[in-house]
Amino acid sequence: MVPRDTLARYLDELLEVDRFQDYCPNGLQVQGRAEIRRIVGGVTASLALVEAAAAQQADALLVHHGWFWKGESPCVTGMKHARMQHLLAAGMNLFAYHLPLDAHPVHGNNAVLGRALGLAVEGGFGGRGGPDIALYGRLPAPVSPEDLEARLERLLGRRPLRVGRGPAELRRLAWCTGAAQSLIEDAARLGVDAFLSGEISEPTVHAAEELGVHYFACGHHATERFGVQSLGAHLVEAFDVEFRFIDLPVPV
Predict the structure, then answer these.
(1) Which tens digit of pLDDT belongs to each residue from 174-197?
(2) Are residues 89 and 140 in the same domain?
(3) Bridge partners of 196?
(4) Tens digit of pLDDT for each residue in 109-128?
(5) Distance from C-alpha of 29 to C-alpha of 31, rounded to nearest angstrom
(6) Residues 46 and 248: beta-carbon distance below 8 Å
(7) Which domain holds residue 62?
(8) What is the pLDDT of residue 135?
């Protein structure tokens, strides 16, 4: 068991939240019970995940996508009210880490995805004035686009959508999980053969064609399961806590 405030400070320092200008608050977003033993992790703090965590009698919910995003209404009504009501009724804490969990060099979504694909990291990009969140690097051996597509399908449990007109052999890749398709021009300037992210929009198809790179849209949720799982496993080693990841897949 670990005191809530001790865990909050530890996570904030580990993920260096003060370095990021984010779209939401990072850290303890909603206060629950003071002592934490059982943590449930997930990608998004949806009502379904809150209910699933409550059914596991969790003391804390640890997610990548939390609440209180910039630009949304501050009123606690409708969907937001239902989510918060269930969380508070269960006495759970809500911890959420967005960009800090994308960018962390060990537990970050991008770092863990890169290791799972056997990529040797050469550097980062996409910081937009803050810390880099995207990575680029090299495969251990050249592969065809079709081979990489199959490898991604095995790893993520879903077939990626591939567009673009890149080379027949892939040696260097750039990647950024989630909704990072807008970084495709930055990736192309690095001289990579392909760029991997989660989502795709109509302009991305044309950009991949004209920039001469392959673009793999691998799923927002599917690519962002890694960070929370890595962080949860770390917390089990660091503290006397239990951790369980609940995967609630979505089709995008």
Answers:
(1) 999 999 999 999 999 999 999 999
(2) no
(3) 175, 216
(4) 999 999 999 999 999 999 87
(5) 7
(6) yes
(7) 2-97
(8) 98
